[in-house]
Automatic annotation (TrEMBL):
Keywords: Endocytosis
Location of the PH domain: 139-192
Protein name: PH domain-containing protein
Gene Ontology cellular-component annotations: cytoplasm; microtubule; plasma membrane; presynapse
GO biological process entries: receptor internalization; synaptic vesicle budding from presynaptic endocytic zone membrane
PROSITE patterns assigned to the protein according to its UniProt record, in alphabetical order: PH_DOMAIN
Length: 192
């Protein structure tokens, strides 16, 4: 048994954990967190239903397996009873663990994850893009003739003058680059 002082400290720590809210610095984090929490809460019923369906399926499987012990009725009944009881006991514990997992997910929504484009990531990306644009303007990486093979086109293939930049791949009718045939945008092409 813990000393009264240690028990009091544990209670204070638990209360702080339950009451202190970890929030992002910006409102979009709060909005994102509210939306995600509503969606995570909606997972409770389907998860519990899934556990019920698994238990039902296991019970049917147990019955089917114990049918093979038909020539030993007492052994069949006892085996079915023991295994079914074990599965039913685990049913409650499994539901408790599923609910605990959902509560854990609700307790902290990670808005700094790389899949979430929050303000911090957007700000970093914008700063990086501005730096890149200052350092490397839309320079031509390569120019030259390019043969495009398309069976739909008459003759099957055609030569075009192309210009590759960090921003786009463009092709023209000829080297004069006056008549642009097509431009394919490339978002900050990186050469490695």
């Amino acid at each position: 048994m813990k000393e009264p002082c240690l028990k009091c400290i544990d209670l204070v720590i638990q209360e702080l954990i339950n009451t202190v809210r970890q929030t992002g610095l910006f409102t979009p984090d709060l909005a994102f967190e509210a939306i995600v929490k509503k969606q995570v809460i909606k997972l409770k019923d389907p998860c519990l239903k899934c556990v019920d369906l698994v238990v039902t399926e296991l019970a049917a499987l147990i019955r089917k397996c114990t049918e093979k012990l038909g020539s030993y009725p007492r052994l069949r009944e006892e085996t079915e009873r023991i295994v079914t009881t074990y599965v039913r006991e685990r049913d409650g514990k499994t539901k408790d663990q599923v609910l605990l997992l959902i509560d854990i997910e609700l307790s902290y929504i990670n808005t700094n994850h790389e899949d979430f484009i929050g303000f911090a990531n957007a700000q970093q990306r914008t700063a990086a893009n501005i730096t890149k644009k200052r350092v490397m303007p839309n320079q031509v990486i390569r120019r030259g003739w390019l043969t495009i093979n398309i069976s739909i086109m008459k003759g099957g293939s055609k030569d075009y003058w192309f210009v590759l930049t960090a921003e786009s791949l463009s092709w023209y009718k000829d080297e004069e680059e006056k008549e642009k045939k097509y431009m394919l945008p490339l978002d900050n092409l990186k050469l490695s």
